[in-house]
Amino acid sequence: MSASRTERLLNLLLALLNTKVGLSRSVLREKVYHDTAGNDVSFGRMFERDKADLKQFGFEVETLMDPSSFGADDPASARYRIGKDSNRLPEVKLTPAECTVLLLAAQLWERAALGNAAANAVRKLQAAGGFTDVELPAGVQPRIKPAGQAFDDVVAAMHGRHPVRFGYLAISTGREETREVEPWGLGSRFGQWYLVGFDRGRGAKRIFRLSRMTTALTLVAGSSFEPPAGFNAKAELAALNELPLQKAILDVDKDRLLALRKRAIATGQSADGGVRDRIQVDFRDPEQLAEELASYGPQVKVAEPADLRTAVVRRLKAAEDFGAAPAVEVGFPEAGRAPRARKRTSEDQLARMLQLVPFLVHHQGLHIQEVADRFGVSRKDLIDDLKILICSGLPEGYPDDLLDIQWENDHVYISEHLDLNRPVRFSEDEAAALLTGLAMLGDLPVLAGVAGDEAGSALESVTIKLTGAAGQAGRLAGSVAGQSVAPEQSEAFATITQAIRDGQQLRLRYLSLQRDEVTERDVDPLRLYSMDNTWYFEAYCHSKAGIRNFRLDRVESLEPNGRAVAGPAPTGQDFPARLFTPSDDDLQVVLQLTRQGAGLADDYYAERTAQLPDGGLLAEVRFGDAGWLPMFVAQHGGTVRILQPKALQDKALAWVGAALAQYDSASDAQAG
Questions:
Q1: Can you give the three-state secondary structure of 207-258, one letter per residue?
Q2: What is the pTM of this model?
Q3: Residue 539 · residue 525 · CB < 8 Å
Q4: How many Cα neighbours within 13 Å face the side chain of 427?
Q5: pLDDT(180) > 90
Q6: Which residues pair with 541 in a beta bridge?
Q7: Measured distance CA(109)–CA(177) in Å, rounded
Q8: What is the signed CA dihedral for 70, 73, 79, 82, rounded to 10 degrees?
Q9: Contact 191/532 with Cβ under 8 angstroms?
Q10: Of 90, 137, 197, 447, which is most buried, counting CB atoms within 10 Å of its CB?
């Protein structure tokens, strides 16, 4: 869609919005298309495509036929218009407490597939004038952790009504199978994300765990589907039974793996003459535990059960095979930092402009850079939008029939909006992002200190208001469901949030997984943030003289030490908080990621990326602890390998090889 087509669609929209009796094809062809469409047939195709595009943006084009004309179905006698109220976002007035709760819900998706949709939905509410600018609770940033590239792919296919094909590790047989599925819904349960859909090969509804997908998703060409009426992902997943509790028997190096030992329900001596300890750990999901155990490499060996051993060996073997594969050429674009992001299109520009006009109507005189920041674009991109807008208007083209926008002294004003002063209704993705996000907050607003007693009622009331405003899209939002992101460590959460508000230091005992030790530290707490319901807090650590991040579930004790923080919180902090804080001592590592593992580039804040022909990715990432990288490679089982530095690549391969060497019996080889 070229810039000229963007302008044409905008002019067509304005013409159809600002007519009561409708406009004929001949008038539209002359005044909007300027007779550039060639013959009648090519014009007809172009007009039908443009109507479909406007429908995609939320505008339904009405066709009015004149029954007195010769032939009621004659296109020449048809007139077209767009109703001014049928597809506009209804008025939504939110209290400050409701706005705060809504922002918490919207920012959940910041790095997940629905992040853009959530941002667009909030901007529509801001453009409608019913949204109050509020500050979020001090230092609280909840987020959803995307379940890899599969999460984004499923959301796109689900809302595009495209069947998908993927490799899947069946839990019943332990074998990899190819599945062709109509994706009806997506949701989380038991700490995992699941796809609910119709399995075409089996002719029945099935539920698939995203982490068991063994290949990237591909769309089934030339095919579409319609989900069942009233489908609700949360209700479907509620019927999913948790896996039965099992016991893992593990041989662990002495005095190592403290985090694993703390979960042991029994400890003894292994059969190797006392070199190792034998521990017993409860688990439900062999794949989930296998991911953790694979990361421990040669420090642990699975004795029983067989399916857990098989899962660990499979991960290690995949990591070894990928690490030993022929090298690829390392090269990055010249443009420096290149985060992985979807390329902006003219569709994005038109959608943004349709939000921009009502936003400017309700926010007169904002500085041009502030407007650009609100929409997440550069100043140049915003000015390009404004230049198209001021050249757009009604077919006659008189000065009073054009959008009138000025940006004198870098402050933007609009005096003629031509009925674009109200945003269009939420799309299905936008409704899903907000309503699902609200449902996932649980008790978080209360724990975060949102307006005291009003927090619970604000969550309920804003959900009711947005459900009504979303209309049909709100009913379709049931295709996405999630679990509460409220922290299980509510007491520690409350202590940290209070310390942040009061500017007080904290004393904590913390289990460091990378160093495999418990340490005591004095810290200045800065903020809390989550990945699903796993919560972290960022703090200035006085013993390390730097910013560090701590998982709440690894904090063994936590209390104020009676001292004030050493200084004010640093300014210019990233939003959201970064799980890994860069420093000058970091090691730069070049990783190769498969398409399944491409999301790791975002998770670990790649400084540079480059697309590979097979859909994978090169990523240059900074790591503060190089000793942890072999664990990282083993954990992700064949979706990531180290290319540079070579010494670190060799170390990771040796780590994986030593882990695999433990499973060298005939039965273990067969299992792998």
A1: EEEHHHECCCCEECCCCCCCCCCCCCHHHHHHCCCCCCCEEEEEEEECCCCH
A2: 0.77
A3: yes
A4: 20
A5: yes
A6: 523, 546
A7: 31
A8: 160
A9: yes
A10: 197
